[in-house]
Inverse folding.
């Protein structure tokens, strides 16, 4: 469903058309003008908002063109019912709207032709095609952006002119409006014509693909990250970008959907988006030795068919969910897991993945998570700084399983106990961004929890026991403003590209700018946490600060079964997990490896005191040693670092691929040699009746 404002706008627009008909039949020119204004404004608002209701109207044959046509026909009905039924205004209106609709066909055809011609077979980032082929500038965005809506709204001049003429009996007003509508429509069509001719036409698909192959031959990629999925799954490839940037081999990212490319985070790694399977299979990837796959999807087959490279499933998170032991994984040469737990998970699942094909490489993405050093972090409790507990529940999922999230059954109990804790703690509430998208109950619980945290924050701000350094916070806020202004400036450099073809041409990243943005984001994060009191409860939504940033400022976490828990284990800090499905503590631990060093919470959160005791007195934490062992089991050893393990695994597999290729070439050479040697002594002899030893051709 849309927002309340969108629903109201849709209702006004739909009700406006019966009102137009009634005003035309009466007839009442002022009433018609008022109803027309309502329908125009409501329609425009819904388009500006990109409301889904616009698409729904099209499904029931009330699309944009139909709505405009009905309004114009009702205007002609108004003229026919009034005293202008047979005069110049009436016939001018009829001729205008016929001519105006005659312009819709060439306009729509030109827009479609331009868009199709500018959609190249591949789209790239950080690939130098500019020096190899000529890609012309995109047409100005106002020409193509919401083009149908803009073209149709040109009738506004004629409608206003005709209404004024009908009310004042002024033919000049009608002719002026009609002239503007038809004239501007013709100019709009003519403005599009240059972009289907001459040097403004992008190169053909064959030329573009040849340029990509030429770039590949020069760059010689060695390791590929391959990904296919919906735009909502872009995070699965984004989490591997920093790892790809740190590879010791030449990396390349291959995407299959344009929506993923549009949602890809900034990176210095070359990216090629190849929607067409045939185009991908014809691409020259002969130098690639290792292909990495972050998801099990059907389109993987288009690259899996290449025998000259080794194929590896690296996934997009480590947890006890069924997706982590998908039987499809046996199609890969190797499966890489973070630690021993991943290996054991496959052994228990018995889905056909052999133990010798599993390699433990750690989780390079967890490098930003700071390891807890216990008491070295500083005193906790009433006499020291206020400890921070992060509540980061996952979302409700699609299947309605109450065990998916704690937010519905336990969330309020958890937050109430935390904000009422004595000695006090600070609460950071960071819900999953999908919370409430499926379950109304989850959405309502989220709003109640948000209200609880905000109320507790207001009460603490008024509590004389808590004081803050106002000067330091003011300095931090000024620093935030400076950093955000610079980030906005950097984001504006180069501006948004006109379209995909232009973005491909100009999409080579400025490395210095990329590094400055990364540095500024780190500075922003530091300033953010200093910009408000260290004891202030806070609800954190949106992309910034990131989840790992919240990990680093927290002393403990409460969460649900998800990769969030596995990632938090890297910090070594105490954590609690809610048994929302009420399996019982022992069964819950048996089914979920990641909770074996956690405080298990019931839905009433009565065990939360155990977590708070561990936070306040780390030396008396009964689960500290268990967390150390579980961290190693789930994520592998701290040394060598995960990125070193990952690079070593890439290098080792690349050698295996090269050995395979050399062996194949040797066998092929030996076979050809044997065939040649066998042919020499057995040369064909001439038939008895062929005296010159040759057959007639």
């Amino acid at each position: 469903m849309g927002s309340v404002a969108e629903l109201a706008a849709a209702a006004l627009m739909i009700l406006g058309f019966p009102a137009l008909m009634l005003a035309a039949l009466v007839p009442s020119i002022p009433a018609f003008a008022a109803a027309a204004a309502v329908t125009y404004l409501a329609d425009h608002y819904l388009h500006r908002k990109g409301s889904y209701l616009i698409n729904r109207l099209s499904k029931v044959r009330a699309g944009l063109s139909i709505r405009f046509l009905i309004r114009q026909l009702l205007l002609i009905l108004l003229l026919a019912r009034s005293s202008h039924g047979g005069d110049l205004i009436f016939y001018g209106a009829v001729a205008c709207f016929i001519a105006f609709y005659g312009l819709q066909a060439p306009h729509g055809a030109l827009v479609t032709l331009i868009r199709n011609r500018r959609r190249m077979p591949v789209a790239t980032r950080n690939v130098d095609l500019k020096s190899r082929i000529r890609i012309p500038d995109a047409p100005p965005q106002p020409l193509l952006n919401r083009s149908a809506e803009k073209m149709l709204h040109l009738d506004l001049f004629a409608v206003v002119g005709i209404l004024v003429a009908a009310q004042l009996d002024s033919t000049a007003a009608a002719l002026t409006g009609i002239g503007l509508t038809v004239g501007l429509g013709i100019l709009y069509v003519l403005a599009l014509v240059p972009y289907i001719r001459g040097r403004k036409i992008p190169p053909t698909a064959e030329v573009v693909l040849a340029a990509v192959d030429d770039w590949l031959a020069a760059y010689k990629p060695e390791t590929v990250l391959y990904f296919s999925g919906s735009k909502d799954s872009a995070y699965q490839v984004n989490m591997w970008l920093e790892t790809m940037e740190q590879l010791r081999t030449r990396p390349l990212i291959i995407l299959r959907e344009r929506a993923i490319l549009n949602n890809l985070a900034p990176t210095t790694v070359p990216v090629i988006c190849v929607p067409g399977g045939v185009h991908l299979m014809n691409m020259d990837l002969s130098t690639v030795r290792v292909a990495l796959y972050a998801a099990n999807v059907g389109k993987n087959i288009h690259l899996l068919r290449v025998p000259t490279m080794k194929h590896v499933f690296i996934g997009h998170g480590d947890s006890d969910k069924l997706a982590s032991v998908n039987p499809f994984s046996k199609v890969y040469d190797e499966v890489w897991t973070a630690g021993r737990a991943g290996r054991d998970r496959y052994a228990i699942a018995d889905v056909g993945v052999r133990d010798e094909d599993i390699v433990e490489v750690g989780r390079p993405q967890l490098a930003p998570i700071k390891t807890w050093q216990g008491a070295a972090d500083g005193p906790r409790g009433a006499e020291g700084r206020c400890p921070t507990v992060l509540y980061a529940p996952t979302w409700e999922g699609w299947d309605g399983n109450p065990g998916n999230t704690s937010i519905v059954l336990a969330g309020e109990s958890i937050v109430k106990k935390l904000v009422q804790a004595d000695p006090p703690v600070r609460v950071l509430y960071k819900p999953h961004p999908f919370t409430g998208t499926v379950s109304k109950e989850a959405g309502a619980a989220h709003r109640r929890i948000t209200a609880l945290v905000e109320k507790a924050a207001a009460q603490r701000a008024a509590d004389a026991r808590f004081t803050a350094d106002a000067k330091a916070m003011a300095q931090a806020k000024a620093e935030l403003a400076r950093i955000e202004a610079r980030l906005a400036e950097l984001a504006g450099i180069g501006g948004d590209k006109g379209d995909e073809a232009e973005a491909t041409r100009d999409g080579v990243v400025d490395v210095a700018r990329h590094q400055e943005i990364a540095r500024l984001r780190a500075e922003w994060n530091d300033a953010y946490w200093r910009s408000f009191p260290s004891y202030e409860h806070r609800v954190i939504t949106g992309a910034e600060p990131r989840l790992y940033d919240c990990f680093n400022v927290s002393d403990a976490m409460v969460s649900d079964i998800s990769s969030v828990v596995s990632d938090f284990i890297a910090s070594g800090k105490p954590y609690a997990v809610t048994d929302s499905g009420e399996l019982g503590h022992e069964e819950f631990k048996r089914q979920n490896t990641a909770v074996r060093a956690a405080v298990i919470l019931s839905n009433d959160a009565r065990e939360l005191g155990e977590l708070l005791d561990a936070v306040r007195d780390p030396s008396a934490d009964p689960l500290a040693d268990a967390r150390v062992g579980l961290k190693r089991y789930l994520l592998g050893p701290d040394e060598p670092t995960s990125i070193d393990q990952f690079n070593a695994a890439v290098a080792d597999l690349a050698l295996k691929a090269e050995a395979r290729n050399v062996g194949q070439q040797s066998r092929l050479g030996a076979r050809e040699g044997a065939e040649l040697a066998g042919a020499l002594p057995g040369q064909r002899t001439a038939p008895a009746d062929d005296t010159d030893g040759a057959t007639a051709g």
In short: The chain is about 50% helix and 10% strand.
